[in-house]
Design brief:
The protein has about 270 residues and is an alpha/beta fold. It has helices at about 5, 15-20, 40-55, 70-80, 90-105, 140-150, 170-175, 180, 190-200, 225-245; strands at about 60-65, 85-90, 110, 125-130, 150-165, 200-210, 260-265. The protein is built from 10 helices and 7 strands. A 7-stranded mixed beta sheet has the order 3-2-1-4-5-7-6, with helices on both faces. The protein is globular and about 50 Å long.
């Protein structure tokens, strides 16, 4: 048994290996694309840019934990000038992350390893530690966040993004694919903040991001296939309707009920 096995997870290695084998690689983040399909990327871009500027963090080293399928490692290298590293515990996840870097023409280091027992040279090394959809798969949320924070330098940033399973996204996930819903610990903004603070981190910002994105609901187990495709079309159409309203200048405030993501940015203590 390795250290990963000692930390209870709601997902197994085989789950991620099967998942990455069955999905296409994401398209790169293209800030010149002003179409509706790029709306989510632009929201994240504005959020990351504001956070990094406010925190006074530019360039430096950034690591993404759980980096398989990551379109964000090339983004942080090209747009914000970071030296990038990815950490994933599956071989296929690392291979796909490496391929995304190759396609983007980016230099970066991809490491296969256990976040709970990372290589010694990765500890306390990074100015920014980033994770997307990671910590909510562990019943001990604080333990997962503590493992992430161990890679941050003193005063480094820990940026955590998770799906909002306490709002309408969680309701839809539970209804359309309960198997996948049960692999998540539903966390709202207050719970995510508390988990970071339990690790001794100073929370700079915690809340909800984006007006809506129903397309983040994963219903890969929904059958028959025609119903699956119909559900996908309806989720995309509903999302597009909200985004069109925003493009018309009508602000839709991110909320606990409607937003697809919960985000937290915290700073590592400046001294051990």
């Amino acid at each position: 048994m390795n250290n990963q096995d000692q930390h209870v997870s709601l997902t197994e290695r085989s789950y991620w290996e099967d998942t990455w084998q069955s999905v296409e690689l994401p398209k790169p983040v293209d800030l010149s694309d002003r179409s509706l399909r790029s709306h989510a990327n632009m929201v994240f871009h504005r959020y990351f840019s504001d956070i990094l500027q406010t925190a006074g963090v530019q360039n430096g080293r950034l690591v993404e934990i759980g980096c398989a399928q990551s379109k964000w490692l090339p983004y942080f290298a090209k747009i914000h000038g970071f030296t990038i590293t990815g950490l994933d515990y599956t071989a296929i996840g690392c291979a796909r992350a490496s391929e995304l870097l190759r396609r983007a023409g980016c230099q970066g280091e991809i490491v296969q390893g256990d976040m709970f027992n990372p290589p010694e040279n990765m500890k306390a090394r990074y100015d920014v530690v980033l994770s997307f959809g990671l910590v909510e798969h562990f019943p001990d949320t604080a333990g997962a966040i503590r493992a992430c924070a161990a890679l941050a330098k003193p005063a480094g940033l820990i940026m955590t993004v998770i799906p909002n399973m306490v709002g309408i996204i969680g309701m839809g996930q539970r209804w359309l694919d309960r198997i996948i819903y049960d692999k998540h610990v539903p966390l709202d903004g207050e719970a995510l903040r508390a988990a970071h603070e339990k690790c001794g981190l100073a929370v700079l910002q915690c809340g909800y991001l984006m007006s809506a994105n129903f397309a983040v609901i994963n219903h890969s187990n929904l059958r028959p296939q025609i119903v699956n495709k119909l559900a996908r079309g309806m989720l995309i159409a509903a999302t597009a309707a909200v985004w069109v309203v925003e493009r018309m200048g009508i602000r839709v405030t991110p909320t606990r009920f409607l937003s697809p993501y919960v985000v937290c940015v915290a700073r590592n203590p400046s001294a051990p």
